[in-house]
Amino acid sequence: MPEFARTGWLKDLSTLIPEDKRNEFFPGPMQAVTYKGSVYAIPWYIDAGLLYYRKDLLNKYGFEPPKTWQELVKTARSIMEKEPQVYGFIWQGKQYEGLVCNVLEYFWSNGGDVLKNGRVVINSPENIEALQFMVDLIRKYKVTPPLVVTAIEEPTRHIFGSGRALFMRNWPYAWNIFQREGSAVRGKIGVSRLPSFPGKSSASTLGGWQLGINRYSKNPKAAERFVKFLTSSESQKTLALTIGYKPTRKSLYRDADLIAQQPFIASLYDIFMTARPRPVTPYYMLITQVMQPEFSAALSGIKTPEDALKTARIQIERILGAE
Q1: Where are the alpha helices (DSSP H) in the chain?
Q2: Distances in Å between the alpha carbon of 64 and those of 43, 159, 207, 276?
């Protein structure tokens, strides 16, 4: 969003959502659509990374959903010994934008970040430790199969949905699919916040869609009415009930109709409250093209995490220095 706002392609929509109304939306999406104090889009629907788990297997072997990444490894290794046909933990590790979403969740849950106070801090000790841990999930702990370095959302969903994984990181969309009649995991799964490193806080990468208006639109007033309609409480409720889009308006997570039809939705409120956008900068599209191959190189064993993140820092500094 900031890249379009900076170039002047988006109409300023601050008047559509006055400051005293902005807290009706989750904070992450509002941060994502705000550039230099002005709002350039209205949050439409929201996504965030979740931990899916096989509650039947956790109950069978006396485990609780993990609060830390280390607990996840311990639980997965223990259950894999008794259920050798089951992978411990699957996630999205292919070189694409989804990999960035995954890696950021480890960075943030270890107190790291990509940018901080205008500085590039991607190769901090916290981030090196976090990326090394992701490598170790595959190579040292062996709770994650090597296939994840080629996996995106749907392959991991199919593996988990066929009953062949204990834990999975994915987006909320998968829940409704798992509950369909005939699903191998119907009634056997739970969701929770993603784990964190000891003493740190869980963090999920923000996803979803925002609706903006071309600054050069020939019908700006009609476009504004349409955006207001689609992002209204009524429209978001309808989309949640009929399609499954998760609302960006906080009040809908207390809506009786929604909770009755989708009890799962109430558990998402706290996760969405703390979901974080990817680096909010006009240069994000350039930055992600740097991060994706470096993260992939580390996971594939081509580079050490330290070398990959050092290279990423140098390239990102060049991008930001060219402003």
Answers
A1: 2-6, 27-32, 55-61, 69-82, 97-108, 125-139, 153-161, 173-178, 220-230, 233-242, 256-261, 269-274, 284-299, 305-321
A2: 34, 22, 27, 26
Q: Do 159 and 132 share a domain, yes or no? A: yes
Give the Cβ contact number of residue 29 at 10 Å: 26
Token pair, residue 319, equals 């991008």
CATH number at residue 253: 3.40.190.10
Q: Give the amino acid at 274.
A: T
How many Cα atoms occupy the beta-carbon half-sphere of 231 within 13 Å? 29
Query: Per the structure block, which two tokens stand in for 111?
Result: 């107190």
Q: Which two tokens stand for residue 76?
A: 């997965």
Measuring CA to CA, which residue among 92, 123, 118 is closest to residue 107? 123
Strand, coil or helix: 209: strand
What whole-number distance in Å separates Cα of residue 211 and Cα of residue 42?
5
User: Residue 44 half-sphere exposure, CB side, CA atoms within 13 Å?
Assistant: 15
Compute φ and ψ for 24, nearest 5 degrees: -75, -15
**Interval 211-265: pLDDT, tens:** 999 999 999 999 999 999 999 999 999 999 988 899 999 999 999 999 998 888 8
pTM (2 d.p.): 0.92
* Domain shared by 161 and 265, yes or no: no
The order of strands in the sheet holding 50-54 is 87-90, 165-170, 50-54, 189-192
Residues 28 and 75 in one domain: no
> pLDDT tens for residues 79-118?
999 999 999 999 999 999 999 999 999 999 999 999 999 8
CA distance 159 to 221: 47
